Amino acid sequence: MRDLLDTEPELQKHFAKMDAPIPGEGMVSDPDDPYPWEQPPEFTVLEEAVDYLFVSLTEEEALAGLVDSALNGATIMELSKLALFKGFTEGKWNPDLMLMLVEPTSYMIMGLLERSGVDDYIIMEDEDEDLFGAEVPEEMMEGLKEKEVPEEVQEKISETPSLMARQ
Q: Which of 15, 81, 104, 163 is least surrounded by Cβ atoms within 10 Å, i.e. has the fewest?
Protein backbone atom coordinates (compact mmCIF):
# COMPACT_ATOMS: atom_id res chain seq x y z
CA MET A 1 0.00 0.00 0.00
CA ARG A 2 2.88 2.34 0.79
CA ASP A 3 4.19 1.85 -2.76
CA LEU A 4 0.96 3.23 -4.24
CA LEU A 5 1.21 6.40 -2.17
CA ASP A 6 4.82 7.00 -3.15
CA THR A 7 4.23 7.22 -6.88
CA GLU A 8 6.30 9.32 -9.18
CA PRO A 9 5.09 12.86 -9.98
CA GLU A 10 4.29 11.83 -13.56
CA LEU A 11 1.88 9.18 -12.34
CA GLN A 12 0.36 11.58 -9.84
CA LYS A 13 -0.40 14.02 -12.68
CA HIS A 14 -1.93 11.18 -14.69
CA PHE A 15 -4.14 10.07 -11.79
CA ALA A 16 -5.20 13.68 -11.19
CA LYS A 17 -6.54 13.80 -14.76
CA MET A 18 -8.73 10.78 -14.03
CA ASP A 19 -10.77 12.88 -11.62
CA ALA A 20 -12.22 14.97 -14.46
CA PRO A 21 -15.94 15.01 -15.23
CA ILE A 22 -17.35 12.40 -17.57
CA PRO A 23 -17.67 13.76 -21.14
CA GLY A 24 -21.13 15.26 -21.53
CA GLU A 25 -21.70 15.49 -17.78
CA GLY A 26 -22.02 19.28 -18.03
CA MET A 27 -24.76 18.93 -20.64
CA VAL A 28 -27.22 17.29 -18.33
CA SER A 29 -28.43 18.21 -14.90
CA ASP A 30 -31.03 16.88 -12.54
CA PRO A 31 -34.44 17.90 -13.98
CA ASP A 32 -35.87 18.00 -10.47
CA ASP A 33 -33.31 20.63 -9.42
CA PRO A 34 -32.64 22.93 -12.43
CA TYR A 35 -30.35 25.95 -12.30
CA PRO A 36 -32.13 29.33 -12.10
CA TRP A 37 -31.24 30.18 -15.73
CA GLU A 38 -32.78 26.89 -16.91
CA GLN A 39 -36.21 28.01 -15.75
CA PRO A 40 -38.51 30.69 -17.16
CA PRO A 41 -37.11 34.13 -16.27
CA GLU A 42 -38.64 36.27 -13.56
CA PHE A 43 -38.78 39.31 -15.86
CA THR A 44 -39.81 39.34 -19.50
CA VAL A 45 -40.74 43.02 -19.85
CA LEU A 46 -37.95 45.57 -20.22
CA GLU A 47 -39.53 48.22 -17.98
CA GLU A 48 -40.07 45.78 -15.11
CA ALA A 49 -36.47 44.59 -15.33
CA VAL A 50 -35.19 48.20 -15.37
CA ASP A 51 -37.25 48.94 -12.25
CA TYR A 52 -35.80 45.88 -10.52
CA LEU A 53 -32.26 46.91 -11.50
CA PHE A 54 -32.80 50.44 -10.19
CA VAL A 55 -34.04 49.18 -6.85
CA SER A 56 -31.21 46.66 -6.53
CA LEU A 57 -28.47 49.12 -7.60
CA THR A 58 -29.68 51.83 -5.22
CA GLU A 59 -29.49 49.60 -2.17
CA GLU A 60 -26.89 51.01 0.22
CA GLU A 61 -24.45 48.11 -0.07
CA ALA A 62 -24.70 47.85 -3.87
CA LEU A 63 -24.31 51.59 -4.36
CA ALA A 64 -21.25 51.67 -2.11
CA GLY A 65 -19.76 48.82 -4.16
CA LEU A 66 -20.43 50.67 -7.44
CA VAL A 67 -18.80 53.86 -6.17
CA ASP A 68 -15.83 51.96 -4.76
CA SER A 69 -15.33 50.01 -7.99
CA ALA A 70 -15.57 53.13 -10.16
CA LEU A 71 -13.04 54.95 -7.98
CA ASN A 72 -10.70 51.97 -8.32
CA GLY A 73 -10.81 52.10 -12.13
CA ALA A 74 -13.71 49.82 -13.12
CA THR A 75 -15.46 50.99 -16.29
CA ILE A 76 -19.19 51.60 -16.62
CA MET A 77 -19.46 48.72 -19.09
CA GLU A 78 -17.69 46.32 -16.71
CA LEU A 79 -20.07 47.29 -13.91
CA SER A 80 -23.06 46.89 -16.24
CA LYS A 81 -21.90 43.45 -17.41
CA LEU A 82 -21.39 42.39 -13.81
CA ALA A 83 -24.87 43.47 -12.70
CA LEU A 84 -26.58 42.00 -15.75
CA PHE A 85 -24.77 38.67 -15.69
CA LYS A 86 -25.56 38.31 -11.98
CA GLY A 87 -29.25 38.81 -12.77
CA PHE A 88 -29.04 36.24 -15.56
CA THR A 89 -27.45 33.60 -13.30
CA GLU A 90 -30.15 34.26 -10.70
CA GLY A 91 -32.86 33.63 -13.30
CA LYS A 92 -34.08 37.24 -13.40
CA TRP A 93 -33.94 37.54 -17.22
CA ASN A 94 -32.94 35.63 -20.31
CA PRO A 95 -29.93 36.51 -22.53
CA ASP A 96 -32.08 38.47 -24.99
CA LEU A 97 -33.49 40.76 -22.31
CA MET A 98 -30.03 41.02 -20.78
CA LEU A 99 -28.70 42.54 -24.02
CA MET A 100 -31.62 44.97 -24.14
CA LEU A 101 -30.78 46.06 -20.59
CA VAL A 102 -27.17 47.04 -21.36
CA GLU A 103 -27.90 50.64 -22.37
CA PRO A 104 -30.39 51.54 -19.61
CA THR A 105 -28.17 49.89 -17.00
CA SER A 106 -25.11 51.82 -18.17
CA TYR A 107 -26.95 55.14 -18.03
CA MET A 108 -28.39 54.22 -14.64
CA ILE A 109 -24.93 53.47 -13.25
CA MET A 110 -23.54 56.72 -14.71
CA GLY A 111 -26.37 58.68 -13.08
CA LEU A 112 -25.89 56.96 -9.73
CA LEU A 113 -22.16 57.64 -9.81
CA GLU A 114 -22.71 61.32 -10.65
CA ARG A 115 -25.23 61.60 -7.80
CA SER A 116 -22.63 60.06 -5.50
CA GLY A 117 -20.02 62.63 -6.52
CA VAL A 118 -17.97 60.48 -8.91
CA ASP A 119 -17.57 62.57 -12.05
CA ASP A 120 -14.42 61.09 -13.57
CA TYR A 121 -15.59 57.60 -14.48
CA ILE A 122 -14.51 55.59 -17.50
CA ILE A 123 -17.21 54.34 -19.86
CA MET A 124 -15.11 51.86 -21.86
CA GLU A 125 -11.40 51.15 -21.97
CA ASP A 126 -11.10 51.17 -25.74
CA GLU A 127 -13.48 52.67 -28.27
CA ASP A 128 -12.59 50.00 -30.87
CA GLU A 129 -13.78 47.22 -28.59
CA ASP A 130 -17.30 45.89 -28.42
CA LEU A 131 -19.23 45.11 -25.24
CA PHE A 132 -17.84 41.61 -24.85
CA GLY A 133 -14.19 42.41 -25.46
CA ALA A 134 -13.76 41.48 -29.13
CA GLU A 135 -11.48 43.90 -30.89
CA VAL A 136 -12.54 45.24 -34.27
CA PRO A 137 -9.72 44.94 -36.86
CA GLU A 138 -8.32 48.28 -38.04
CA GLU A 139 -8.99 47.42 -41.72
CA MET A 140 -12.65 46.85 -40.94
CA MET A 141 -12.92 50.15 -39.05
CA GLU A 142 -11.34 52.04 -41.95
CA GLY A 143 -13.61 50.26 -44.42
CA LEU A 144 -16.68 51.19 -42.42
CA LYS A 145 -15.67 54.84 -42.17
CA GLU A 146 -14.92 55.17 -45.90
CA LYS A 147 -18.01 53.46 -47.28
CA GLU A 148 -20.88 55.48 -48.63
CA VAL A 149 -24.37 54.31 -49.39
CA PRO A 150 -24.85 53.98 -53.18
CA GLU A 151 -27.37 56.37 -54.76
CA GLU A 152 -29.57 53.47 -55.92
CA VAL A 153 -29.94 52.26 -52.35
CA GLN A 154 -30.61 55.79 -51.07
CA GLU A 155 -33.38 56.21 -53.66
CA LYS A 156 -35.00 52.89 -52.72
CA ILE A 157 -34.88 53.86 -49.05
CA SER A 158 -36.53 57.21 -49.73
CA GLU A 159 -39.21 55.58 -51.93
CA THR A 160 -40.07 52.85 -49.42
CA PRO A 161 -42.98 53.89 -47.22
CA SER A 162 -42.53 53.78 -43.49
CA LEU A 163 -43.92 50.77 -41.64
CA MET A 164 -45.67 53.23 -39.34
CA ALA A 165 -47.32 55.14 -42.23
CA ARG A 166 -51.07 54.82 -42.43
CA GLN A 167 -52.48 53.10 -45.47
A: 163
